[in-house]
Amino acid sequence: RKEVEQDPGPFNVPEGATVAFNCTYSNSASQSFFWYRQDCRKEPKLLMSVYSSGNEDGRFTAQLNRASQYISLLIRDSKLSDSATYLCVVIRGATGNQFYFGTGTSLTVIP
Amino acid sequence: EPEVTQTPSHQVTQMGQEVILRCVPISNHLYFYWYRQILGQKVEFLVSFYNNEISEKSEIFDDQFSVERPDGSNFTLKIRSTKLEDSAMYFCASSEWIYTGELFFGEGSRLTVL
Predict the structure, then answer these.
(1) What is the pLDDT of residues A39-72, one digit of tens each?
(2) B2 by DSSP, 3-state: which?
(3) Which residue in A42, A87, A91 is closest to B101 by CB distance?
């Protein structure tokens, strides 16, 4: 079973729509969780951390469900500039140094 | 804004040749990483480096790979004898703290092995 699994999409949504991505992780010992964004042929960039209590940053909301071992990302009022691949990232290593990346979910926001 | 820089941006090499990819992490960061991404696939962890030694490595990081911090600024990845399947984008990353989750990635070095 993969460490981190994501629906690859693609998700094609109109501007202004709300879209949600889920990600599951296999190891219950996983410690920290993040969403990264990767534009085509570019490097990943941190979008937001995911906390047990849930957290919000503007139009973006992240949730963690440890019991079911999944994290989610909700994007409200989608913008064209949100078009990218969203990567779920989990830290499991004993030293906290090993980040596991999901394959990413592709989002295209359509005018 | 401080950034991680990588060179070269693209390297083409023949199978069996040695390749060195270079990275300059953000100056006050203590933890350094190499990741790779084969086209269309996920970002894969290769190795992490702290205090001048490898702290973790993945099963991908076999004997043909090595890392070095030859001076106070550069962090290098060497592939001793490249294979076709080494063709990928190699990302260097650094972080200020352990467990922080915020990795700062360089723009990547695309390696093409012919």
Answers:
(1) 998 999 999 999 888 899 999 999 999 999 999 9
(2) coil
(3) A91
